[in-house]
Write a structure and sequence with these properties.
This is DUF4145 domain-containing protein. The chain has about 70 residues and is mainly alpha-helical. It has three helices and no strands.
């Protein structure tokens, strides 16, 4: 796995408190960035899905109901 260097400026007090508490800043930053990436991807996917449904004249609720009905028919 390759890595990149990420340099950010934070308040000195924040860094010092994290060090005092033994917080692994790298892990915290990675988890926060992963969570934000998931959130943005989900948001973009939802917008794309809503746009696609709108283009065929369906709401998300109507689409979900249609899928449920189709599953029950099996």
């Amino acid at each position: 796995m390759s890595t990149e260097v990420l340099s950010v400026r934070i308040r000195r007090e924040l860094k010092e408190e994290a060090e005092r508490l033994g917080i692994d800043v790298k892990s915290v930053v990675e988890r926060a960035l992963e969570a934000e990436i998931r959130r943005v991807r989900k948001q973009r996917f939802k917008a794309l899905l809503d746009e696609g449904l709108k283009s065929i004249g369906l709401t998300a609720e109507e689409w979900v109901e249609a899928v449920r009905e189709t599953r029950l028919e099996r």
